[in-house]
Write a structure and sequence with these properties.
Blueprint lengths: L9 H6 L4 E5 L5 E4 L1 H7 L3 H4 L11 H18 L1 E10 L5 E12 L5 E10 L1 H34 L12 E7 L9 E7 L5 E8 L3 H21 L3 H15 L8 E11 L4 E9 L4 E4 L5 E4 L16 E7 L4 E5 L16 H12 L4 H15 L7 E7 L4 H5 L1
Antiparallel strand pairs: 1-2, 1-5, 3-4, 4-5, 6-15, 7-8, 8-9, 9-10, 10-13, 11-12, 11-14, 14-15
């Protein structure tokens, strides 16, 4: 079977190879060129051999690159490969190619001529152009998605925190990635009889499903607090809603800490009741410089069980005290230096060094801390702080 194939002569292989071949003198004058390259360019052999230099077949930009980089590197190294150039055809059109050149030397190592192999890069150029177009389109789509995510994220947070007489409040939301909507949320709002409700939570997952749960959780918590402001009852109501709505093949849950703030006495203090459902313990930064976690130990995730256990604790905020609530994106962050998890102990030490402080300064310090982690913050982080300001006499003292 193979013997029936026509014999290929070396000359025929050269002339009709699937790539272009040409040989030039050291000054670039074309000494030999194969039929393949002539056909690509639309020239007759007599138009080029002995009459034109290789650089004259290049575009203006290609000629400049050839003279300043290609030719000097070739003479210095003896070979240069895979260089993208554009050749000018006889009809003025451009032919993108990849060129590889080697210097042929005599027995004494002196250069004699330059051999160049040219590969047609039109398909590759078309692929690169399409790839670039697709990449730009993807970038535009990503930017559009990021804008939509930013708008959606903003709708899941209160536009401004309520002004509570006798209390300083501050909050911050740290976005770990602009590509997905996070599930952290917080709010502070007035209730009847001069009391105030607050909550801060974290929905499992990210993206549109998490956003839907976040919206449901926020409105359920606010509505439940109006009906019964007791924080444990508020979380129990949310637990019932989530467990009923998402108890199938795709269960959804969240961690939440809810609170009730009540002014207490003429000295400017507040009584605080906190209820926790699987959420990290709140931090209390005292006016005397102490810092401690407020235990809501044993509180179970909200939405998993029909009757979740909800832990409750009570505390009084005196002038100079600040209460700090946060989501686990803070303690789960990884330090930039060693990559280790930040953790609860480090956060407590951070709070001890910060106390006494104000709500605004506490949130600002946490925001700066998150910035030091850089890419080590894998999850969104919400921070909410409330504090009783010192009296003018105490501040001066």
């Amino acid at each position: 079977m193979l013997s029936a194939l026509p014999a290929d002569s070396a000359e025929d292989l050269y002339e009709h190879a699937p790539c272009g071949y040409l040989s030039t003198l050291l000054d670039g004058t074309i000494a030999k060129i194969n039929t393949t390259l002539l056909d690509w360019l639309g020239y007759e052999r007599g138009d080029l051999v002995g009459r034109r230099k290789f650089s004259e077949l290049l575009t203006v930009g290609g000629r400049l690159y050839h003279e300043t980089h290609f030719a000097p590197l070739l003479l210095m190294q003896g070979e240069i490969s895979g260089i993208a150039l554009e050749l000018k055809a006889a009809d003025g059109s451009r032919l993108p190619v990849l060129a590889t050149s080697t210097v042929r030397t005599d027995a004494d190592g002196q250069p004699l001529l330059i051999r160049t192999t040219v590969f047609d890069a039109r398909d590759r150029r078309a692929y690169e152009i399409e790839l670039l177009r697709a990449r730009r389109q993807a970038e535009r789509e990503r930017e559009r998605l990021q804008r939509l995510n930013a708008v959606l994220q903003a709708t899941l947070l209160p536009p401004a925190l309520a002004n509570v007489p006798g209390l300083d409040v501050a909050a911050h939301y740290h976005v770990a990635s602009t590509d997905e909507v996070g599930g952290d949320f917080y709010d502070l709002f007035p209730l009847a009889d001069g009391t105030w409700g607050l909550f801060l939570g974290d929905v499992c997952g990210k993206g549109a499903p998490a956003a839907a749960i976040t919206s449901l959780a926020r409105y359920t918590l606010r509505a439940a607090a109006v009906y019964d402001p007791d924080p444990a009852a508020v979380l129990a109501n949310l637990n019932t809603v989530l467990n009923h709505e998402y108890n199938g093949h795709d269960p959804r849950f969240c961690t939440v800490i809810a609170g009730l703030l009540t002014p207490d006495g003429d000295e400017g203090g507040f009584r605080v009741v906190l209820a926790g459902g699987g959420h990290p313990a709140a931090l209390l930064l005292r006016a005397d410089g102490r810092a401690e976690y407020l235990p809501t130990t044993g509180g179970q995730l909200i939405g998993v069980l029909p009757d979740a256990y909800i832990a409750t604790t009570r505390v009084r905020l005196d002038p100079g005290d600040t209460l700090l609530l946060y989501t686990d994106g803070l303690t789960e962050a990884h330090a930039a230096g060693n990559g280790e998890r930040y953790g609860d102990e480090a956060l407590l030490a951070f709070a001890e060094a910060l106390a006494p402080t104000t709500a605004l300064d506490a949130v600002a310090a946490v925001r700066d801390l998150l910035d030091t982690f850089g890419a080590g913050v894998d999850d969104d982080t919400a921070v909410l702080a409330v504090g009783v300001p010192r009296s003018a006499g105490e501040e001066q003292g």
